[in-house]
Amino acid sequence: MEKKVEAILWSIALPGFAQLISRSFVTGILLIAIELIVNVQGNLNTLIVLSFQGHTQEAVQQADYLWIMFYPCLYFFGIWDAYRTAGGDEKAYMAIPFASAAFITTIGVAYSSHTILGVTFGPIFLPILSSFIGLALGFAARKIIMTLD
User: Fold this and answer.
1) Where are the transmembrane segments (predicted)?
2) Domain range holding 131?
3) How many CB atoms lie within 10 A of CB 46?
4) How far apart are CA 38 and CA 22, in angstroms?
5) Residue 1 scores a pLDDT above 70
6) Are the C-beta atoms of 124 and 47 separated by less than 8 Å?
7) How deeply is 38 buried, as exposed, middle or buried, from its count of CB atoms within 10 A (0-12, 13-18, 19+)?
8) What is the dihedral of CA 11, 15, 21, 23, to 10 degrees?
């Protein structure tokens, strides 16, 4: 269990780190390279700084949505792959929560420039909030599928 948690935490820090630790060098380097490309092209670090400083509208204006829409899939694939490599594939259907989180978070990115309930969450906070919803839906779907299996 400890190894799986460690893998997830390193992957949250940066997709590819856990793969490097587990000596999956090709996957790790590839994930880090793709993350860097998407990060730079999507202007992600600037969006994070602006969002955390409360400049949501400026973050929305500087976001390159065509690039950052790809980030949730990359991010959650990296987390899932690290978890799987660390022994998480012993549990059935564990890809479902990660895939669900990637899908719902991508929807969060798509709607992040819109005002929802009177608030514009922006390209960082709405996707983060969406990821928790995606994980919850994914774990619920996994539980339902396991009862049918």
Assistant:
1) 7-34, 65-83, 92-111, 117-141
2) 2-148
3) 14
4) 24
5) no
6) yes
7) buried
8) 130
The CA-based diameter of the chain, rounded to the nearest angstrom, is 48
| Radius of gyration of the CA atoms of the chain, in A | 16
Which tens digits make up the pLDDT trace of 85-104? 998 878 899 999 999 999 99
Q: Which two tokens stand for residue 57?
A: 């509208």
Count how many domains the chain has.
Answer: 1
Provide the angle, in degrees to the nearest 10, between the axes of the packed helices 25-42 and 44-52.
60
Give the single-character DSSP code of 90. G
Note the pTM of the prediction, 2 decimals. Answer: 0.91
As given in the structure block, the two tokens for residue 69 are: 């829409």
Dihedral sign (CA 85, 130, 96, 44): negative
pLDDT level of residue 79 (50, 70, 90 thresholds): very high
**Cβ neighbours of residue 35 closer than 8 Å, sequence gap 6 or more:** 14, 15, 16, 74, 75, 78
Tokens of 149: 């299996």
Q: How much of the chain is in helix, strand and coil states, percent to nearest 5? A: 80, 5, 20
